Amino acid sequence: MTTAGQAPGQAQANLIAIPRDWAYDFLLFTHRNPKPCPVLDVLDAGETVSALKRDADVRTHAPQYRVWENGELKAEPENATDYWRDDLVTFLIGCSFTFETALTNAGVPLRHVEQGKNVSMFVTDIQCRPAGRLHGPMVVSMRWIPESLVDIAHKVTALMPSVHGAPVGAGDPRMLGIGDIDEPDFGDAVEHEPGDVPVFWACGVTPQAVLMKSKPPFAITHAPGQMFVTDMPDFAYRVG
């Protein structure tokens, strides 16, 4: 189940919980790479409730989680409580699902929502700026947008930098090192309509690609496209 198209008007977030002795490296990584990793909240070590959703537990509120050991995916539970550790520092990272209501209101169709699918996500050949022990490539989400509406999509999302902001590219996927637009690394392949072009936004699944490259001993994340839905209104992250 994806949270794309769910809870319209509410901000959604990516989640990563990482041991405290790696948390500074990750905080520095987000500071150096704000486009894919805009921080919405950081919890104290062992804390399980965010100010963004005070009646929810970060271990259970996302539809599905991923458990990582030494950069390898070990489990995908619906409830992360049994895997939780008191030394985990949880980061909530902005998610592009947050700007989808604004896109819809501007008349931009969302093909993945129309088709009941998760958004397509791809690992690019763009390397993030390293921080301490953390390094790896940027991940992007892709939406098929009518070519006539690409400028509108750019303007709408540029006003929401805390949830990835403006696209990082449009058109030829090879400019990002993406070989096959029909074979996403995460999420679903989405069918396009005549006149659509692929538009790419920096994606909060980037930390998962970084985990695979950097291999910290342990981490918990959300499953791609299965987000932590907050109580924050999406317009709270609009500027201007």
Describe the structure.
With 240 residues, the chain is of the alpha+beta class. The chain is built from five helices and eleven strands, in the order E-H-E-E-E-E-H-H-E-E-H-E-E-H-E-E. It is globular. It starts with 9 loop residues before the first strand and ends in a 7-residue tail after the last strand. The longest helix is centred in the N-terminal third of the chain and has 13 residues, at 20-32. The chain has two domains: 10-95 and 207-237, 3-Layer(aba) Sandwich (PSTPO5379-like), CATH 3.40.1640.10; 96-205, PSTPO5379-like domain (PSTPO5379-like fold). The model has no long low-confidence stretch (mean pLDDT 97). A hairpin with a 2-residue loop joins strand 3 and strand 4 (72-75). It comes from Lentzea waywayandensis. InterPro entries: D-Glu_cyclase, Putative_hydro-lyase, UPF0317. Pfam families: D-Glu_cyclase.
